[in-house]
Design a protein that fits this description.
The chain has 174 residues and is an alpha+beta fold. The protein has a domain of 95 residues: Ribosomal Protein S5, domain 2. It has 6 helices and 5 strands; from the N terminus they run ααββββααβαα.
Length: 174
């Protein structure tokens, strides 16, 4: 039998303790997972989402509608928390208000790029497109309010030899 140093048995004991703790942690997480997940019948319920894509300036919004009570979440936050300006909040709700569907749908939107006003415009267009998909009878009201038209205005590029898109450096005659 080979001679073992004095740390050999302590190492074996350590590995046993660690493996026992890992086993306990795995058992605990498995029981948590099984208790958190809904039953098989609930999980198989199909969720019907209506998708709409909106763009404004450099902002892009992916909007999801589902039948509900009228909750609006943008990037996981409530509308009032995400958009601080009242004008932007009104813009987001405008297409729902025009079609009187504020309390019929829940809205989830993921928005990227741009600033607050561009993002609000992108969400507006995304909601309008999703509403038109959900119920084709709403389309005339959305067209009349000009909610289905993408705003083509973009920031004009800066030109060389100038300080901005249109502004020029001060002219010196001599």
């Amino acid at each position: 039998m080979p001679r073992r140093n004095r740390f050999y048995w302590s190492w074996i004991n350590f590995t046993f303790v660690v493996s026992d703790r890992i086993r306990r942690i795995n058992l605990a997480t498995e029981t948590e997972k099984s208790s958190k997940h809904p039953s098989a019948a609930e999980a198989k319920k199909p969720k019907t989402y209506i998708w709409g894509l909106g763009r404004r300036k450099t902002a892009v919004a992916r909007v999801r509608l589902a039948p509900g009570e009228g909750n609006i979440l943008i990037n996981g936050r409530p509308l009032e928390e995400y958009f601080t300006e009242d004008e932007d909040r009104k813009a987001v709700r405008a297409s729902l208000k025009a079609t009187q569907t504020q309390d019929r749908f829940d809205v989830w939107a993921n928005v990227q790029g741009g600033g607050p006003t561009g993002q609000a415009g992108a969400v507006l267009l995304g909601i309008a497109r999703a509403l038109a998909k959900a119920d084709s009878a709403l389309e005339p009201a959305l067209r009349a309010g000009d909610y289905l038209t993408r705003d083509p205005r973009m920031v004009e590029r800066k030109k060389y030899g100038q300080s901005g898109a249109r502004k020029r450096y001060q002219f010196s005659k001599r």
